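User: Run a structure prediction on this.
Assistant: Running it now.
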Amino acid sequence: MNKEEQGSIIDPSASSQLSRRGFIQGLTGAGSFLGMAGLGAFAGTAKADNAPRDAQGNIIPGFEKDQQATTAAQGWQPVSERKIKVGIAGFGLCQFGAAFYYQNHPNVEVVAATDLDPNRCAQLAQRVGAKKTYPSCEEMIKDKEIEAIYIATDAPSHARLAIMALNHGKHVCSAVPAVFGFEAEGEAEDLFKAVKKSGMKYMMNETSTFHADLYAKRMQYQAGALGKIIYSEGEYYHDFGPNGLSGYNPKTGKVDKFGWRRGLPPMWYPTHSAAYYVSITGGRFTEVSGLGTAGRYPEFQAENNGHKNPFGTEVAMYKTSEGGISRMAVSWDMKNAHGEKGRVYGEKPHNPKISGQRPPLPPGVGGGGHGGSHGQLTNNFIESILLDKKPIVDVCDALNITMSGVIAHKSALKDGEWMKIPQYEL
């Protein structure tokens, strides 16, 4: 796999309202979905023979290569001796809850684990060393010993569980997306208010944020080297194939190709692409015009999916808060299109003297999948609690990324009509 396929920034100057239990009975959804699936080895690492695969047998984008842990971390300095007591929700088909190195972090004690499937709950607890288990995330959230919750459940449950945890005084790290689907706009307001009222830390695990080249551009931008970003692009491509991706089907009570993922609007999962502007600048998308192409597979016909979605590929053009333009795309049906990648161009050239190296990680904490982003996200979230600082993808960034896609899909349904995007600022 070449560098671009891992999510590089190419720049010439630089190298429906169903119950949560219904959604996840027998499958903790987010853990097996697309690029946010979990990994199979004990420390959260993956190899070619056990990496998560789709229905066609192809490795899911983001897991082709895995940056594993080292026995000693060069340059890492502990910021505290304190251990944050963490509860992990969701193991999933691909062991997602164990894939982000919480169990290896020296400032974390995993005290509890949960999954709606009892067998997977037990496996998760064993994998992360949790002594307590709960039958649901809702029950685990009530545990007063837990300080922070890692929500690795199905996408439709993320916002509701995050809000509940925040209201119980827990810090929250959520898998992507922050909000989902038809309920996204209302959920976004509720999540934003819950974060603001609680004063707790909230972070969304957007993996593109710690792709090496994206992070390097972030450092360039933060140092003022690029000036304003004139144009940016982000892409997340994964061909579902004719067999689609399975999910829980509330009509049959089984995991099958007619589950909640069937016909999923591409822009309801915009995060790996939209991060190529938001996670570099911390800026906002203000308006969007979206277009879609008719899906190539039967599931991407409005009458064949519960989302009434006709699109297999969607492309959005955004206006940015600093006066630039962004093109963001997500596709489930283009042949030979693969992975997470982007391009960023500013007013000024890339400055090679500015280091873009990612922060060192603690001993035993590897980079993990998605270009070595997993361990970085966990370390950033834990340090945001210990140092009382803003997480790298806080609630405002998370909602801007997610809502930009939701509104883009609405625009595509209206054939490119320009629409305003809600703005969130703490």
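The chain has a mean pLDDT of 86.
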